[in-house]
């Protein structure tokens, strides 16, 4: 479960840094500009990267702003339910995921699951590809990546159960599959993420 601090969202469009979620500040109601934010807010380097690589070089043609999500492996536990999407949706912004290599399959799972997410950008996208994506996103398009592996619902549920500390029999009951199938899906999950499940656990502690 996300803490109150984890659910907080501030605009980075100007020096006022108005709060957008969980509640809007009074000043933000009188702002005529689209809001841009990053979440989680703790990574100042991520915020600087979004400002320098994206916001300074592209113009948003939409009235609704965007939140750029640090969809990296250390933040994995934030993305095991749709609570984070519901929280960000309270700010009335579109969502863009910036995913590292290990998180591509999970990022595309959420892109498929939620119409509030407009695109997945990969942190190793080259300059020209990033520019092309942002022009399309800021003109109102939703971008889907058909080439990248995507977690299915069973794999997502297994990932969540294992990170919650559940045993193989508990995972079997949760997914309504036999234990042998649990291990088969677990191996497919690990292949899509590119990391053994126990290394994932250690990275996200």
UniProtKB/TrEMBL annotation:
Pfam families: GerE (PF00196). Residues 155-196 form the HTH luxR-type domain. It comes from the Bacteria. One of its GO terms (biological process) is regulation of DNA-templated transcription. This is Regulatory protein LuxR. The keyword DNA-binding applies. The keyword Kinase does not apply. GO terms for molecular function: DNA binding. SUPFAM superfamilies: C-terminal effector domain of the bipartite response regulators. Keywords: DNA-binding.
């Amino acid at each position: 479960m996300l803490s109150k601090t984890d659910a907080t969202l501030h605009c980075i469009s100007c020096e006022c840094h108005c709060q957008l979620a969980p509640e809007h500040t009074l000043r933000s109601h009188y702002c005529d500009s689209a809001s841009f934010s990053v979440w989680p807010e703790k990574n100042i380097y991520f915020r600087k990267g979004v400002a320098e690589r994206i916001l300074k070089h592209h113009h948003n043609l939409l009235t609704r702003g965007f939140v750029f999500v640090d969809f990296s492996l250390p933040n994995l536990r934030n993305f095991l339910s749709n609570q984070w999407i519901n929280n960000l949706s309270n700010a009335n912004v579109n969502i863009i995921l910036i995913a590292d290599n290990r998180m591509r399959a999970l990022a595309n799972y959420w892109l498929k699951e939620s119409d509030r997410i407009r695109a997945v950008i990969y942190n190793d996208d080259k300059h020209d590809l990033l520019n092309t994506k942002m022009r399309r996103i800021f003109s109102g398009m939703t971008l889907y990546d058909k080439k990248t592996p995507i977690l299915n619902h069973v794999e997502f549920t297994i990932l969540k159960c294992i990170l919650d500390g559940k045993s193989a029999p508990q995972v079997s009951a949760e997914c309504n599959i036999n234990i042998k199938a649990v291990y088969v899906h677990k191996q497919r999950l690990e292949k899509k993420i590119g990391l053994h499940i126990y290394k994932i656990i250690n990275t996200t502690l």
